Amino acid sequence: MKLSSAVRLAAVAAACAISPVHAQSGGWEPTKSVEFIVPAGTGGGADQMARLSQAIIQKHNLMKQPLVVVNKPGGAGAEGFLYVKDAKGDPHKIIITLSNLFTTPLATGVPFNWRDLTPVAMLALDQFVLWVNAESPYKNAKEYVAAAKSAGAGKFKMGGTGSKQEDQIITVALERQSGAKFTYIPFKGGGDVAVQLVGKHVDSSVNNPIEAVAQWRAGKLRPLCVFDEKRLIYKEKVTDKMAWSDIPTCKEAGVDMDYLMLRGIFMPGGVTDAQRDYYVELFKKVRATPEWKEFMARGAFNQTTMTGNEYRDWVAKTEQRHRELMKEAGFLAK
Amino acid sequence: MAEITSLLHGFGVALSPFNVMLMFVGVVLGVIIGVLPGLGGANGVAILLPLTFTMPPTSAIIMLSCIYWGALFGGAITSILFNIPGEPWSVATTFDGYPLAQKGRAGNALAAAFTSSFVGALVAVILITFLSPVVAGFALRFGPPEFFSVYLLTFCAFVGMSKGQALKTITSMMIGFALAAVGLDTVTGQLRLTFGFTELLKGFDFLIAVIGLFGIGEILLTLEEGLAFKGARAKINVKVVLETWRELPRYWMTSLRSSAVGCFMGIVPGGATPASFMSYGVAKRFSREGEKFGTGQVEGVVAPETAAHAAGTSALLPMLTLGVPGSPTAAVLLGGLLIWGLQPGPLLFQEQTEFVWGLIASMYLGNIAGLIVVLTCVPLFAAILRIPFAIIAPVIIVICAIGAYTVHTSMFDVYLMLVFGVAGYVMRKLDYPLAPLVLALVLGDRAEDSFRQSMLLSQGDLSVFFSNALVGGLTGFALVLLFWPVLAAGLRKIRGG
Hints:
The structure holds 2 protein chains of 2 kinds. Chain A has helices at residues 3-18, 20-23, 45-59, 78-86, 100-108, 141-151, 166-178, 190-198, 209-217, 273-287, 290-298, 308-329; strands at 34-38, 67-71, 93-97, 117-126, 129-133, 156-161, 182-187, 204-205, 221-226, 261-268, 306-307. Chain A is α/β, with parallel strands linked by helices. In chain A, helix 5 (100-108) packs across helix 12 (308-329). The longest helix of chain A is centred in the C-terminal third of the chain and has 22 residues, at 308-329.
């Protein structure tokens, strides 16, 4: 046995002995600081989740090496994905994804695919809710869509984040379901969209719960329906009268459409199973903390989690669904 | 008044020894972050955010917001000493700050910059204290057409500034617009002008262009001119602060105007960078000594610094009341609020009284702490200019390279910075102004987005820019400023008979 590998083995053994927590992770653990890539800007949903994870890991001492959050938002996240794709075999990089894992390569033709990466774990799914201004007369999704339809094509304005991404995909799917035609106005961030809706510059939005909840509680916005198959599980009152669980699903409201956004962790391709399992375990511990649970409730997340083959299959299926939805909408890159 | 009581209570919260210590730590860290080009307030706050996770929210926001104040102060230092803006909003400070340093008045320029930053912040904090509900409602009236008219106003306030070489100004601005168009287009979701290079996906970052054009370009020029900083004669004396203070009251009108511009741009939220440009342009237009701007006028430092700090401070107002960040740093702080379990938005002021008023009180105290820290260091900063060029130049280049690297942690950006450096040198040799390029690069894509969003809203009807009193007034004012030289000449002719 060569000396260097003997030393390394001894080091690993020592590490396992010191910390029983890491012993379960199959022997591998990071040997230097880990980069946590966010393929989106600072302050957005993915960024918040990444920084919360970082804070939880630090507070509960879940990792010996530091975890550093790095934003690489260029080209709708393509910058971050290409960076991780090029780091093949590097176990010291992880990336949190949103729907741009699928939409960016499909819409822009930038050469990457989730198959270039190693799926680690699904952390949660983010919901979408159809919102209108609280002063508007529409009490449910059916009324609103009917009004949009009878007003004529393009008269109602839907605000959303980015172009050819999840918000616009939902809008197009909603149009196909209902026959109404909206003018879609893309903005840079979800918070901007919520305020534009409060200021009545647009008629509706499909903000994530966490982007619009403050305005809802203040009585400025009204949720019409949630784009999921089941109602939200959070029964605690958010406003005086309503809890998240009181919002009907869009299907109940007569608009048969569901869409959820992946919040999941990937690694570069070509890493070993032991390396992947280390992060699977790590995020399992993160999810078990009270801070994480509180964050889930505040943002009304769908707490489905998956790992291993189940996760891989889910990602493959979801990619196919995006391909179909975007093809119908005419968003595929030529 | 209820606000006064709440504010006094807030001072009680903010003045605990632990919080005061955090305030000074934050300010010093912030100044360092502000001095390093590239490592902006947003990055700095993001890096330190997890540290605050275990603190009480009020202490955490006090420390982080003090980093923000520190960065606002610190950005001016390298602008004045080396013509390298440490932060985007201090680009306009270089226009008169650096000439002042070259004349041996670096101390005055620094003292003026810090003092007017403080004045700007103070005006903004008073506004936040007493008028936040009213002002928050005002921000809601801003849709895409209103935003476009604000950007148009910034361009128009600035464009007539350079005299004589209209063609060169326009060329420079058009290059800026072209660079701003590279990368992902928000409205269509398509990549533009990347020519298949993945490095160009993220577009040209304003900071890298500025570090190269100003910093590296300046070093190249100095190399050619005989390896000496002209500012070496700078007085190193605490008296310089008092001397500057005696001079400042003369510019009260500029301060007032710049504070107003800054607060307006912060609340809208247009941001600190456009505010500083707009304020400089407006001050030049309306000052009695406007002709001399750019040659080293203290007034030319007062205007952008007051506005930048007023905007930077009032940018926290839409964040707290609406949950919309007025600046990139505010965006990170917003994420922090959520992590600490607070919900920014209309109810924050009612539900988290202690937090909100603690924060507002810390805005007063943090700025005082910041002013003390930076003013006592003025002689020290000015002394840097006495270091021989042969030693300081390599240090500056290294700092610039680190700065360019930290923007996106990418080596490509460092090479890009060098290319911009050469471009900056050539442009200055050929007498092309750099400011219009920088302004177009920082505001070009935002102006374009809001214009195209407006066109989507109005279905292609340009009259949307005159559709109500607010947007019509802004657009009208912009056009008046743009054609002011022509109008003024016309008026003179009529009067002259």
